[in-house]
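Journal club side-thread
Mid-discussion, someone asked how the predicted structure for our own chain would compare to the paper's figures. Pasting it here so we can look after the session.
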Amino acid sequence: MKQFKVKSSTLKKGFFCLLVPTMLFTQKLTAQLSGYTYGKTITIQGSRIAGPVTNFPVLISFTDPSLRTTGNDGRVQNANGYDIVFTLPDCSTILPMQIERYVASSGEYVAWVQLPSLTNGSNTMIYMFYGKTGVVANPSTASVWDANYMGVYHFNSSVTDGTANGRNLTDNSTANVTAKIGEGRRLNNNSSPYPTGAATRHLQLPSNIFNTVTNFTFEGWVYLETVNTSWERIFDFGRNTTFNMFLTPSMAGNGVKRFAITINGNGTEQQVSSATTTGTGAWHHFAVTIDASTNTGTLYYDGAVNATNTGLTLRPSNLGTNTANYFGRSQYAADEGFYGNFDEFRISSTARNASWITTSYNNQNSPATFYTVSAEVVAGALCAALPVTISAFDAKPEADAVTISWTAEQESAGDTYILERSGNGSSWEAINTITATGSSAAQKHIAKDPAPLYPVTYYRLQQRHAGGSISYSQVVTAKLDDVYNNNKLVVHPNPARDHVQISLQENVSAQHLQVELLSNTGISIPLQPVLIGNMINLKLPKLGNGVYFLNVYIKGRKYSSKILIAQ
C-alpha cells in the first residue's frame, strides 16, 4: 500500500441536486503593463507538480536571443535585465521575483518567481514582459521567499542571504564555480590527506539562529567528487561534538547518507540513515525535514523519500547555544572536509512536505521540462481584449458521471477550451481539452467527467486563444448524492481511538484505491492503510482529539465521512 495524496473537498450533507442557473456572460482580459513592448507566455506543466503547493518559488531559467540587450541585438533595455517582469494572466498582478543571473550579451536569464499556487495535473500560465525604456530599479524582492525561509543562498558569486533576514554566510576559502543553477561554491578539500577541522574550506552561518526552531527543512544541490573521504558534512549545526545535527553524504567512506541530531554525543544520536549510496561526479538534490507534530525525520534524495525515522523527538531548538553552524565542516576535528560543490542551499523553520520537495526537484533539475515558453509576441497581443461569450454553461450529474455542456456564441479557429474541476473551488485540475470549431454560428460543446469528486464538484472553462491569451468562465457546481456516498462507506468505530476500519460494498484492488485523513484545518495525516477484500484497516498515529475527515477514493470517485478521534 502507498500513502495517498488527493485533493480535499468541502464536506456538506444534502440531497442529490444541482443549483446551476442558465447563464450568459462575457469576459475580457485587461490591457498589458504600461510601457512594455514584448512578451512571452510561460506555461508551467501540471504533470510536473507533485501536489498542491502555495507561495511556491519557481525557477525561470533559459537563454533567449530576445532577452539580450538592445546593444546586443536583443529587446531588453536595461543592462542588468531590470525591465523583465512577470504577471498573472490578468496582466496587471506583478509577481514577486528575484534575479539570480543575467547575461546581457547572450540573453541568459535566471530568476525565482513566486506563484500563489500550483496544482498537480493543472497547467498554470504566467506572462513575461520586457523591453521597457527608462527602468533603473532592480525588481528583485526578498518577498519571493515566504516567511518560513530562514536563509536562501544562491551562491551566485557571493554568499549573501536572498531573504530579508540578512543571514549572510562567512566564507572560509571556498571558490566561485559554474554550478547546477547559475553559479555555486567549490569546497576543494582534496589535498592528501584530506583536511580536517578548521583547516577545511567551508561556510558558516550566523550563531544562535536555531534557538526557537522546532520544525526544520534543509534543501540544496550537492556535487560530490568522491566517497573515499570519511564523515564529511553537507551541513553540521550546533556548538560541539555533544550538541549538533548534521547531514553527511558518506559515512566512514562508504558513500551512504545519514542525517542525525544529538544533545549528548554520538552515542545517543537520533538518526535518519539511508540504505543507498550517494552518486559522485554529478549534481544531486538533498533535503532533510523534521516534522515536530509527528516526530518524523525524513531524508530526501533527488526529490524522493530516501529514509525516515518516526521516533525523532529532538528539535533544532534542543541544541541550545549554536555558535558553530557549518556548511561543509564537521564539529568533530577528525572528520574530513567536503570535497565537491554546493548550490542553492535553503533552510526553513517549517517541515516542507513531499509535494514541495519533489516539485522543487522537478523544477530545478530540468527547467526546460517544467514549463514551456511561447514565441515572442507584441505585448499587446498577450492581453488584448478578446471577448468570450458563453451561454447555457451547465453540469448535470448522472449515475456514474457528470455531463458538462456549454454553448459558445462566439469563438475563433485555434482557440481551445480546457475543462477544469475542483473539489474546493480553489485548487483546479484539467480533465479535458476541446478544440473550437471557429464557426461564426453558435456552437454547443459537451464533455463528460467520469470521476466527479464527492460530495461537491466545481467546474470552470479556461479558454486559450490562438494568440496566447486566456480567459475563464464562471464556476458551476454539481452536488452529488450523499445518501449513495454514505451507504457506500461504513466507518467504525466512530468515535475512534487508535484504529479505524472501513467497510466497502465491494472488493477493491489496491491500485484503484486511495485513502486520506485530513484534520479540520486541511492538514494531511500520514497513513498506512491495509486492504483485505472489502475492508480497509487503518492504524491511527498519535493525534489531537477532534473531528477529522476521512476520504476514500475508489477508481477516482470520492467517498467521505467525518470521524471523531478521542485518544
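Post-session note: The chain has four domains: 38-144+368-380, 149-349, 385-479, 482-565.
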